[in-house]
Description:
Layout: E1 4-7, E2 10-13, H1 14-34, H2 41-66, H3 68-73, H4 88-105, H5 110-135, E3 149-151, E4 154-156, H6 159-177, H7 186-202, H8 218-241
Antiparallel strand pairs: 1-2, 3-4
Helix pairs in contact: 1-2, 1-5, 2-4, 5-6, 5-7, 6-7, 7-8
Amino acid sequence: MLPVLQLGPFALQVPGMVLLASIWLGLQLSESRADKRQVNSENIGNLVLVTLLAALLGARIGYALRFPQAFLEHPSGLISLNPGLLGPWAASAAALLGALVFAQRKDMSLWPSLDALSPLFASLSLGLTLSSAASGQGYGAPAQLPWAIQLWGASRHPSQIYEALAAVLILLVVLRRGKKEAAPGVLFMDLVIYSAGARLLLEAFRAESHLLPNGWRIEQMLAWLILAAAFWARHQRLRLAS
């Protein structure tokens, strides 16, 4: 865990830095491959910028609407850099809306754009995993194995390492698959399939899973649903292209 990196008088939030680095890397990879998907690379960069700005604005507005009294007492909190003052659901909704509006205005085709953005999504997945590890989240279940690590007073699966290795492998596969011709949307669906499959397998090693009363893990059930939907959508894309 390394939530804060102290450099002299500066305290740097490591999780946030990791996320920004993953977005930058993914954007470079996506822009460099956009032309092959008949997508304007400049539009890809602007789409990501608009999406990020919409997410930040929506996240802060969403949090302010949930806790208005806090911001009425301290209005400066509206421009605070504290990531704890952000609403994740509002951020997701605003990001999606911003991306859809921009893509429609620029007449960006859905499936080629998703294919072009697949390296960014894969890189962001790796960034989220490393960010979670830096903040101490996503730790593993107790285990007595030669490679177990000591964390929170117990020997545990290094689940954060498992997930990081899986994310790196998925990113490499996506970059390699991106060199091959395929029907529009297939590369993105492959990414969804790889990611859902990894979540399905690796969730079993985590200690923080959300459980239903019967003991089933919610994340694994969602992964099964996403896998089924992604395989169906992939088949449809290939059928339409044939």
